[in-house]
Amino acid sequence: MASSVIRSYVAKNVDSLAIVGAVAVAYCGLKLLRSIWRGFSVFILARALGLSVNLKRLGSWAVITGSTDGIGKAYAFEIARMGINVVLVSRSAEKLADTAAEIEKKHNVKTKTVAVDFTAGPEIFDVIREQLEDLEIGVLVNNVGMAYSHPEYFNLLDDKVRVIVSVLSCPLTLMTRLVLPGMTERQKGVIINVASASGVNPVPLLTVYSATKAYVDFFSRALQTEYRTKGIIIQSVRPFFVSTKLSKIRRANLFVPTPTSYVRSALATIGVETNTFGCMSHAFQNWLYDLVPKPIYDRLSLSMMVATRKKALKRAAKQD
């Protein structure tokens, strides 16, 4: 009975349904073309035309937090490659010294190191402030972070949840507060805040990490609106997976770039995009996710995280 009613309705309204279908296809086609053009213009055309900001003109020093591994280390090397002196801020004095020596040898720039533990109290920012005095800071990269050891249900998280919230929100906010007055006075500067694609769409079983990365993104976007008329760029960088220790992915591929290739691409978007996924393959991943209806996306995301959790717990049990 129902099928005959549907057939009858379709037969009577075939012309109208054809128009609706054509409009829907045209809309999706235009949206696809717009996304392709945006990706091409941001990640290929802008770089070829040299539209990104020349960071060397903003100041003689750059400050990078979380600068001895992964994305942060790649930012330090790529910025030094531009001839800019770098202040490396991280926890391990030994790793800082090694990274600084490597940068000086490879790129012939000055370095300073500040060994602080961002899980400590607010007094560490007094230490950082003293080390940054009298430096002409043109670039700040807020990269320090930490993640879950594996996806986990919120009620099963230990006290590490407090540390994650603290490390992913406080250092970024207070480091920005340290350098912004000087940038405002000189009417130029760039602040790069490394957020995450998980802060764009919520990720179950990584709830706290996802939520704090959303804070990073919103903080950056609001601040950019405040300071865009003052010659300052605040950029939110939202990577998907990059082959780092934090992601636990060792082998790079088309969709999981190395830190160096990712950062080189992301730096080329400064002055072109204030909210960027950093590279074309990550922008394409986000476009694909946007096509998926939210209820389906949520179920798929939960299923993936549950499966990852099971594998991690199984590995941990074998090690014990």
From TrEMBL:
Q: Which GO terms describe its cellular component?
A: endoplasmic reticulum
Q: What single Pfam family name could you report for this chain, choosing any that match?
A: adh_short
> Which domain of life does the UniProt lineage start with?
Eukaryota
In which compartments does the protein localize?
A: Endoplasmic reticulum
- Keyword Glycosyltransferase appears in the UniProt entry: no
Keywords associated with the record: NADP, Oxidoreductase
Gene3D superfamilies documented for this protein: NAD(P)-binding Rossmann-like Domain (3.40.50.720)
Gene Ontology MF annotations: oxidoreductase activity
PROSITE patterns in UniProt: ADH_SHORT
Q: What family is this?
A: Belongs to the short-chain dehydrogenases/reductases (SDR) family.
Q: What name does this protein carry?
A: Uncharacterized protein
What organism is recorded for this protein? Ridgeia piscesae
